[in-house]
Write a structure and sequence with these properties.
370 residues, Rossmann fold, 2 domains, six-stranded parallel beta sheet, four-stranded parallel beta sheet, 14 strands, 39% helix
């Protein structure tokens, strides 16, 4: 398996970890990447690639070349690669399609700065990612392509001519040992105390390593529009709130928006949550959505997220039609504030049995070794 980094602080990285942990005891398995700060699962060999884990735009090409040389040195019978930031393997597991996101995006406003959507196509980082993505899909000859949703299958055919006959839709799975209602009940009081959540507070968790694409700006505007002092917003991820601080202050939300940084155990902040809110603007899947439901946490997200299929509106969460519509999101927050969230949470865990790690990874194993 090949990806730049292996850890549990991001959705793609957690999928990598879970597949390696599942396959390690069953097959000779290696991970090729620049770093594995938390080690590797039992039975997995780490093949380290020298060089920076997060290079600048031009350095991404050099990193991909270094990773490619390490891939060749392993001599694996089956190579699974997780996206165009690494060279293609014979099985591609596609976490997202960058060109599809840029095409779908609207104007970006962060504080005083407004960036027209089309301008991003000219930005160095996006130009490099688009070039790498085009090479990854147009010049490779995979025997199989794993997609997280039907939308990805359609985007790959439309944008890069990938044969749908090569593809299989496989959702991102959750680990039931880490995400379950029993753990949430056991850890809830301690997790809320750790995150500084007061009694009576309605804690919304926002778990993401990106802010703009995941709809952070819309959340804070919706919070201000609702005006319900019970609502607080807790951000878990590597992206700091700097670009949004002025907006948060202007909306008088500084006391109710809290940044906690990345977490290698997302089950801990979910134990403290009353809601997961992720009004994402582009999301082929969205692993944290099923992780939250598995833990018994109701979810508000958009219908654009592939994992939104797991949400039962009015029973385990609510779905937003337009991720840019702040008024619609505010209405959903108001509805959640009136709902019996404990009842929603009790039904949530049973709604995602099909996404359990053992079931999903068993399907992947059959594809890899058939």
């Amino acid at each position: 398996m090949v990806f730049p980094q292996l850890h549990r602080r991001g959705g793609i990285e957690r999928v990598c970890w879970d597949l390696l942990e599942y396959l390690g005891p069953r097959h000779r398995t290696a991970f090729v990447g620049t770093s594995a700060p938390d080690g590797v699962p039992e039975g997995v060999r780490f093949v380290g690639v020298v060089g920076p884990s997060e290079p600048g735009p031009l350095g991404m090409y050099a990193r991909r070349s270094r990773i490619g040389r390490s891939m060749e040195s392993v001599g694996a019978g089956t190579t699974v690669t997780m996206g165009s930031v690494v060279p293609p393997g014979d099985v591609l597991w596609v976490p997202s399609v960058h060109r599809a996101w840029l095409e779908a995006a609207r104007t970006v406003t962060m504080g005083p700065i407004t960036v027209p959507a089309r301008l991003r196509f000219a930005m160095p980082q996006h130009r490099v990612l688009l070039a790498m993505e085009s090479q990854y899909f147009r010049r490779s000859h995979p025997r199989h392509v794993l997609c997280t949703s039907r939308r990805e299958v359609d985007d790959l055919e439309r944008l890069y001519g990938v044969d749908p006959g090569l593809t299989t839709v496989v959702p991102n799975p959750f680990d039931p040992q880490r995400f379950n209602p029993e753990r949430r009940q056991r850890d809830r009081d301690a997790a809320r105390a750790d995150l500084g959540i007061d009694q009576g507070e309605l804690a919304m968790m926002f778990v993401a390593n990106e802010l703009h694409r995941k709809g952070f700006g819309q959340i804070v505007q919706a919070m201000a529009a609702v005006g319900d002092e019970r609502f607080s917003l807790h951000v878990v991820g590597k992206a700091g709130l700097g670009p949004y601080r002025a907006q948060i202050d202007r909306l008088h939300l500084a006391a109710r928006v809290h940044y906690h940084g990345p977490s290698s155990d997302v089950g801990w902040p979910l134990a403290a949550a009353d809601l997961l809110v992720l009004p994402t603007q582009y999301e082929p899947f969205g692993l944290v959505i099923v992780e939250a439901l598995a833990a018994g946490v109701p979810v508000i997200t958009t219908r654009l997220a592939g994992a939104s299929e797991a949400v039962r509106p009015g029973r385990t969460g609510l779905l937003q039609d337009d991720p840019y519509d702040v008024e619609e999101l505010a209405g959903l927050l108001e509805a959640a504030g009136r709902a019996d969230l404990e009842a929603w949470g009790r039904e949530a865990a049973s709604s995602v049995e099909a996404y359990r790690r053992d079931r999903v990874m068993g399907r992947v194993e059959d594809i890899l070794f058939s």
